[in-house]
Design goal:
The chain is built from nine helices and eight strands. The protein has 228 residues and is of the alpha/beta class. It has helices at 24-35, 47-57, 67-72, 86-92, 94-97, 123-130, 145-149, 166-179, 192-208; strands at 16-19, 40-44, 62-66, 76-79, 101-104, 135-138, 158-163, 182-185. The protein has one domain (16-208): Rossmann fold (3-Layer(aba) Sandwich), CATH 3.40.50.720.
């Protein structure tokens, strides 16, 4: 898949805001989603920086905006932001996130690469607590931003997706498919801590084996398998 192929916007698809879209994961997600025909708004604290990064994609369906404007313009909002200051970041955007599908890809991790969840139990649960009307889904934690950015390389990984709203989970599973991965329904939001902790493990494996692209696949799950 090339970023130039299939890049024409599809009006029937949801608009996606990626808050933290100037980072490695956010930018990689933007490349793949734009290539799949989604309209993507890259969000940043600095609107000029967001516009600069969006311009690097050289695609008509990629734009940049300050985080609040990006969230307002989208149907689905992906949080690809650092864990530090997560609660304050989400609380400041609660009005813009209300009622929307919010995909939290935050990985709470300290300098020693230990999983350090907030008091709510996971970053995704914290987002749900701060924005009760949002349809929060946890996903994309184990994907390599560098591999996502290499749009001509197959992703060939699974994306575990959890959240309390089945329709929101299904929408995010569809996004995982658009990236070139396979979305796997991991159940309710209580599984988010497991997904976030798994990401810490994958990060450690990449470091230990001097890799950049390691991810996960669920063995022996048939392509046509459907959850109960």
């Amino acid at each position: 898949m090339s970023a130039a192929a299939g890049a024409s916007p599809n009006a029937g698809r949801p608009a996606i805001a990626i808050l933290g879209g100037t980072g490695t994961l956010g930018f990689g997600l933007a490349i793949r989603l734009c290539a799949a025909g989604y309209r993507v708004v890259i969000g940043s604290r600095d609107a000029a920086r967001a516009a600069e990064v969006a311009a690097r994609l050289r695609l008509p369906n990629a734009t940049g905006a300050a985080n609040p404007d990006a969230a307002r313009a989208a149907d689905v909002v992906i949080l690809a932001v650092p864990a530090e200051g997560h609660a304050a970041f989400v609380a400041a955007l609660a009005g813009e996130l209300a009622g929307k599908i919010v995909v939290d890809a935050t990985v709470p991790m300290d300098a020693g690469r230990a999983y350090t969840p907030p008091a709510a139990g996971s970053a995704a649960a914290e987002t749900q607590r701060l924005v009760p009307s949002a349809r929060v889904v946890a996903a994309f934690h184990t994907l390599s931003g560098r591999l996502l950015a290499e749009a001509d390389r197959p992703l060939d990984q699974d994306v575990l997706v959890c959240g309390d709203d089945p329709d929101a989970r299904a929408a995010v599973i569809a996004l995982a498919g658009a990236l070139g991965a396979r979305g796997v329904d991991a159940g309710g939001l209580e599984a988010a801590a497991t997904l976030e902790g798994l990401a810490v493990l994958i990060i450690g494996l990449n470091i230990r084996y001097r890799r950049r692209h390691l991810g996960i696949k669920i063995a022996h799950l048939p392509p046509d398998a459907r959850p109960r």
